[in-house]
Design a protein that fits this description.
Blueprint (H helix, E strand, L loop, with lengths): L5 E6 L4 E8 L3 E9 L1 H4 L7 H23 L8 E7 L3 H18 L2 E6 H7 L11 E6 L4 E8 L2 E7 L5 H11 L6 H9 L23 H13 L4 H30 L4 E5 L6 H14 L2 E3 L3 H4 L4 H12 L17
Parallel strand pairs: 1-4, 4-5, 6-9, 9-10
Antiparallel strand pairs: 1-2, 2-3, 6-7, 7-8
């Protein structure tokens, strides 16, 4: 094996068409992301069929651009890593099919990557952070509390029993008549509000590391409908109170998991970890408790292929290669 291992990562699990080349799991040579936000904005959410077609149109261009930016040729690649789940089945199939074809034509190793594992590996990009640690993966489709024992060893301690946290952000934003995607809009609005003015319930689910946000979502939706007369005046406080309720639950459960595993290292991952309030309270709490914390740069919180290439590298070290009959698995577990 060469000293410098170049992995091409391909990510098409939802509405981002992404390709990246990462060296030795940490050094980013290129990272290209084509987003579909403007396409889905008028629908208020991702339309699976439209997402799949958009991936098909752009994937070749995105991969070629990633090679050009890395100043590499296809023969310089050591392996191809691709997300095969979880995600939207049609969207996943675009990336998986392209990766299999490329691996066959170039005679390169193919590595299947779990999307959640990819998010966790975002913490290794341009960083020396390493396992073991507790990772909270929070995004539009996932809310998972995971004990990362090794680069490819995971123990799921808790997960959402209903809505993922990012999904709730979007639904609360919709009822507040904010633009799509809702997460960044709520984050921005909350910065002008006061979370002490409107208190919302926190579902801690005693003796469990699982999460539940559907009750909070319903509570806020009902609260908004009952307060339509002055909604514009209190909208910012609703956003702040919502973020406080969500953030405190995530913070408390993550630290409880650390205590269980006698681990003083925490990582965040996933699109919602770009939220300024969550980043703030985790950094402050970790400083106070003398914990080490890793939060990816915001570009690596949302879906990207650099994290997939990083995960693929650690799979390559363990000879975890996929066959050309690899398929998309929309409900793939970590």
């Amino acid at each position: 094996m060469r000293e410098e291992i170049n992995i091409l990562g391909i990510e098409t699990s939802c509405d981002e068409t992404a390709a990246a080349i990462v060296q030795n799991g940490r050094k980013i040579l290129s990272n290209v992301v084509s987003t579909q936000i403007d396409i889905h904005k008028k629908f208020g959410g991702v339309v699976p069929e439209i997402a799949s077609r958009a991936h098909l149109k752009i994937i070749s261009q995105v991969i070629d651009e990633s090679l050009e930016k890395a100043n590499l040729k296809k023969d310089d690649l050591d392996a191809i890593a691709v997300t095969n789940g979880p995600g939207l089945v049609g969207a996943l199939l675009v990336g998986v099919s392209y990766a299999k074809t490329l691996a066959f034509v170039l005679n390169k190793k193919l590595i299947a990557v779990n999307h959640i594992s990819g998010h966790i590996c975002a913490n290794y990009l341009e960083s020396d952070f390493e396992p073991p640690f507790i990772c909270c993966v929070i995004s539009g489709g996932h809310t998972n509390l995971i004990y990362v024992k090794g680069y490819d060893e995971f123990e799921t301690l808790g997960q959402t029993r209903d809505d993922a946290v990012g999904e709730v952000y979007d639904k609360v934003a919709r009822v507040l008549k904010l633009n799509y995607p809702g997460g960044p809009e709520i984050d921005k609005l909350a910065q002008t509000g006061n979370y002490n003015k409107i208190k919302f319930p926190q579902a801690l689910l005693d003796n469990s590391f699982d999460f539940s946000f559907s009750g909070l979502k319903s509570h806020i939706i009902n609260f908004v409908y009952k307060n339509q007369e002055n909604i514009d005046e209190i909208k910012k406080d609703i956003a702040a109170g919502f973020q406080f309720a969500v953030g405190q639950v995530i913070l408390k459960k993550t630290f409880a998991a650390c205590e269980l595993k006698s681990c003083k290292k925490i990582a965040l991952a996933g699109g919602v970890s770009a939220n300024s309030y969550l980043r703030k309270i985790f950094i402050e709490a970790c400083e106070e408790e003398n914990y080490k914390i890793s939060i990816p740069k915001k570009d690596f919180c949302t879906d990207n292929a650099a994290m997939i290439a990083s995960s693929g590298y650690f799979g390559l070290l363990k000879d975890k290669f996929a066959d050309l009959d690899l398929n998309a698995v929309p409900n793939l577990k970590i």
